[in-house]
Specification:
Layout: E1 9-10, E2 26-31, E3 35-48, E4 53-56, E5 60-64, E6 70-85, H1 87-90, E7 98-101, H2 104-115, H3 123-138, H4 152-163, H5 171-178, H6 182-193, H7 197-214, H8 219-225, H9 231-242, H10 246-257
Parallel strand pairs: 1-2
Antiparallel strand pairs: 2-6, 3-4, 3-5, 3-6, 5-7
Length: 258
């Protein structure tokens, strides 16, 4: 799920409505001189920056501040709506990329503005943008940013886990596969990512679970696909990090797609 952000391209403009993206489609690393909101009206979008990875199913909106390099990957057929954000509103949003939980009102105002390519300078556009801003200010932020490593030894390990989140190998086993000692890798996880190996892998699996559940996969199948020993341990880990049970999250996400 991680993608590199090297050799980023400066994009000067975006259409509010992108062509639907096929499953697994990539948007290359790029940046803008304006802030941008990104919403998947269907499917799910994963956004990667130098500092981490964010998952955005159909009930979440991603915020990318000006000049932040970002790349993306789609999960499922994804209908992406992007919205350039005026400087006045950008200044009131977080300085780092973030993901907001989309209320029904935020979602409808966003779709109305992006779907009709409404100008922010028009009276209706200003009203819609005011609603979007007000709803963003009160919307809870998704806390599940997955930090990405800068050290190549650590990246060799996290790349293996991105490719197969269900991989049950210990840190020592992963170290043997990538040519580093368990002690070195443990130190790098703590120093570079400010978390343990176990915490990072759990967070990766929870991020991937958001995608699985948003596509309608059952809680039990999601737990098994992503390497949990049993559904109970998955439900506990998911609830601790997301703040709601996977069953409730799945119901909300599936309803948002419909």
């Amino acid at each position: 799920m991680a993608e590199g952000t090297q050799q980023a391209v400066f994009w000067t403009d975006d259409s509010p409505v992108c062509e639907p993206l096929a499953h697994g489609a990539d948007i290359a690393a790029h940046f803008h001189d304006y802030g941008q909101l990104r919403y998947a009206a269907s499917g799910a979008l994963v956004t990667t920056t130098e500092s981490g990875t964010w998952v955005t199913p159909a009930n979440r909106i991603t915020w990318v501040p000006p000049f932040h390099v970002h790349s993306s990957r789609s999960y499922g057929e994804t209908d992406v709506r992007v919205l350039p954000v005026p400087a006045a509103l950008s200044a009131q949003l977080p300085p780092e990329p973030s993901v907001f939980v989309a209320s029904a009102l935020l979602r409808e105002a966003y779709l109305a503005m992006s779907g009709e390519q409404e100008s922010a300078a028009s009276e209706r556009g200003r009203l819609l943008l005011a609603v979007i801003g007000a709803e963003l200010f009160r919307a809870p932020q998704e806390p599940l940013r997955l930090p990405e490593p800068s050290d190549p030894r650590l990246k060799a390990v996290t790349d293996l886990l991105h490719a197969d989140p269900a991989l049950s190998a210990t840190l020592a086993e992963l170290g043997r596969r990538t040519g580093s000692s368990e002690r070195t890798l443990s130190r790098l996880f703590a120093g570079d990512l400010s978390m343990s190996f176990h915490q990072w892998r759990t967070l990766l699996r929870i991020q991937r679970a958001l995608l699985e559940l948003a596509q309608g996969t059952s809680v039990t199948d999601t737990a098994m696909r992503l390497g949990w020993a049993n559904p109970g341990s998955f439900i506990s880990a998911f609830t601790d990090l997301v703040g709601q049970t996977p069953g409730r999250y799945r119901s909300t996400a599936v309803a948002a797609r419909g």
